[in-house]
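Let's practice the habit of predicting before peeking. Look at the sequence and jot down your guess about where helices and strands might fall. Then scroll down.
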Amino acid sequence: MNILVCDDDKAIVDAIGIYLENEGYKIFKAFNGIEAIKIIKDHEIHLIIIDIMMPKMDGIRATKKIREENNIPLILLSAKSEDSDKILGLNFGADDYITKPYNPLELIARVKSQLRRYTALGGLETRSSVYRTGGLMIDDDSKTITVDDDEVHLTPVQYKILLLLSANAGKVFSIEEIYEKVWNEAAHSPENTVTVHIRKIREKIEINPKEPKYLKVVWGVGYKVEKL
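Done guessing? Here is the structure:
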């Protein structure tokens, strides 16, 4: 699962990141609310830990903005002197708060508790139809594809190929596997069929199809969508 840690103190972000990475979580780092909101738009985030006092956009304003679009579990980091801000943050939609200096074991316990609750309420399943990698996003509910917020139109077969690879970002599929999963039939000399569709997809989603950012070939093995 992906956790965003946001604090203007780099040492705190790094320390929290180490604790959570040791628990198997992937960490994204931000140092103000503006950076945090951008990361949430560009990546699938399952939980946010955000400090209250930060430059450019503080944790309270960021929490309010985040809650306009999603229900990701959000834990506030606060100093003991910020009791009124903690209450304000909870009123704007924060799920919990941790007071500095924090106990790492308590932090991990609260993170796991929020993620269990989110999973039990179906939060992860609700988001599972949306696949993001970098600026590429596929919403399988609405069957829409955007690249850097610009909508891209693919044929049904092209869409199925890209969906298969994006839903398994980072995993390499052979040409035979792609054919069998997309066409639902045994593959018989599928090279030309698949590679033509791959080329067409690249022409629509890549800035430079000859040097693709998203849809990569792994020579001698197959294709993958890069996990960014």
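How did you do? The longest helix spans residues 104-120.
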